[in-house]
Design a protein that fits this description.
single chain; about 450 residues; alpha/beta; Rossmann fold; 2 domains; seven-stranded mixed sheet; four-stranded parallel sheet; binds pyridoxal-5'-phosphate
Length: about 450
């Protein structure tokens, strides 16, 4: 069979690695809507953003036109410690599914943070260091972003203050220890340390927290401490830019074996891995050079794309952050403690939101137990224990492969395997014990969050 000429793993050599990030906004006809100042309702200027974010990152955030940003040498050197990540042909999964589809995954879990988040963490920490800052503050949900940022800060000698969503802080004590080992301080959020934390606790005593709360706290600490800036692990344009390294490598590896994917699938929390994976392929689609199907997969418990509204909203619960136009469930939406912690955000990347709104991308929501069934199948066939977040993409990839089995189509499917699940064993335990539940918010639950969207002139 000539098919077997394609190896299990397609690696790039170090000198085949991308040397510039790709900015998909450059090829978008309708650009993502600008961030707005919540006070004035006007687009935020660079001057207004620099007290919160590092200068170079503000430039990247606001640049809709430059297609390629060279990756600084120090970041390239760091990337070489754990990249290129392999593109893997899932022969064993294909066989188990008895499908004519060809399944590939891009595996980003091969570093200590256990996810793709390190790709942007090192970039953001690098620009903070360049600017002569003392340190950075951030939020973390499941803990992968906090871990990635601690690693990057340790490497560059920066202080790192992490506000960790309380439910994860309690469920994942070992994550916390990894971050502390890399020198970060970790505070459960909401905390009594910040004004906004105290306010949220007064309004919602006993809350298990949310990414939105933790963001508010981290931003407050960054703006009140000289020499500190806030960094965010997803959603922002700059993060999708850094994560384009995933898609650029995947495309280079496919080009090497002369294969073109038909369907590209990723899980979507704030949209950074999906945005990064699809960027170069989406660029081809936007320029009319090729066509692909793109599928975003989100949890049914936090369905921003599939049941949210495309509107301006706050990125945080404390309503101190800029307004972003995105698919959102409302910044007051506190999702049920679903185990896919990294996908529990009320909003979505403005870039992906615009692309979805313009019909370049599909989205679907999947339920937790079906996600763990897919995770189990994947672990048993391909060997890797996947993160619950990543398993959303696995679930959709399996579903697409099974459709191919019905129709006999030999489609090529690529999905992003964003990370490993070693810190998610409480979730696996619930699944194995048969006590995992599928929470789906009712229309009324969602209506409450959507009713609280901010009033912005010109928005219906
Ligand atoms: C954070 C995370 C996600 C979701 O974040 P995106 O910004 O949507 O990519 C997915 N998988 C893993 C393993 C994560 O850590």
């Amino acid at each position: 069979m000539s098919e077997n000429k394609i190896p299990y793993k397609i690696y790039l050599s170090e000198n085949e690695m991308p040397t510039a990030w790709y900015n998909v906004r450059a090829d978008m006809k309708t650009k993502p809507a600008p961030l707005l100042n919540p006070g004035t309702g006007k687009p935020l200027s660079a001057e207004e953003l620099t007290p919160i974010f590092c200068e170079e990152l503000v430039k990247q955030e606001l640049d809709d036109n430059t297609a390629y940003f060279p990756i600084p040498q120090e970041i390239l050197d760091f990337y070489k410690m754990y990249r290129p990540s392999p593109l893997v042909r899932a022969y064993c999964l294909e066989k188990a599914l008895d499908t004519p589809a060809k399944i590939y995954y891009k595996f980003e879990g091969n570093n200590t943070s256990g996810s793709h988040k390190l790709n942007s963490a090192i970039a953001q920490a690098y620009y903070a260091k360049q600017q002569g800052l003392k340190g950075v503050t951030t939020e973390t949900g499941a803990g992968q972003w906090g871990t990635a940022l601690s690693m990057a800060c340790a490497y560059l000698g920066l202080d790192c203050k992490v506000y960790m969503v309380k439910v994860s802080y309690e469920q994942k004590p070992f994550r916390r220890e990894v971050m502390r080992t890399y020198g970060a301080s970790v505070t459960p959020s909401p905390s009594m340390e910040t004004e906004v934390g105290r306010k949220i606790l007064a309004e919602h005593p006993g809350t298990t927290g949310s990414l939105g709360c933790a963001i508010s706290e981290a931003v407050e600490v960054a703006t009140k401490n000289p020499g500190y800036r806030y960094v965010l692990g997803s959603v922002l344009n700059q993060v999708l830019l850094h994560q384009s390294v995933i898609g650029l490598e995947a495309k280079a590896a496919f080009d090497k074996i002369g294969v073109k994917p038909d369907i590209i699938i990723g899980c979507a929390g704030g949209g950074s891995n999906l945005g990064g994976l699809i960027s170069p392929f989406m660029g081809e689609k936007l320029r009319g050079e090729a066509d692909y199907r793109f599928i975003a997969v989100e949890p049914a418990s936090c369905p921003s794309f599939t049941r949210g509204k495309f509107a301006y909203d706050f990125c945080d619960t404390g309503m101190i952050c800029p307004l972003a136009k995105m698919y959102t469930l409302g910044s007051g939406f506190i999702p049920s403690p679903n185990h896919a912690g990294g996908l529990r955000f009320h909003g979505m990347s403005p870039i992906l939101s615009q692309l979805y709104h313009d019909g370049y991308m599909e989205a679907r929501a999947v339920e937790q137990t079906s996600v763990f069934e897919a995770a189990e199948k994947f672990a048993r066939t391909e060997g890797i224990l996947p993160a619950p977040e990543s398993s959303h993409a696995i679930k959709a990839a399996i579903d697409e492969a099974l459709k191919c089995k019905e129709t006999g189509e030999e489609k090529t499917i690529l999905f992003g395997l964003t990370g490993t699940g070693y810190f998610d064993l409480v979730a696996y335990q619930q699944f194995n014990d048969g006590v995992m539940t599928d929470y789906i918010p009712s229309d009324e639950d969602l209506a409450k969050g959507l009713a609280a969207l901010p009033q912005v002139p010109g928005q219906d």
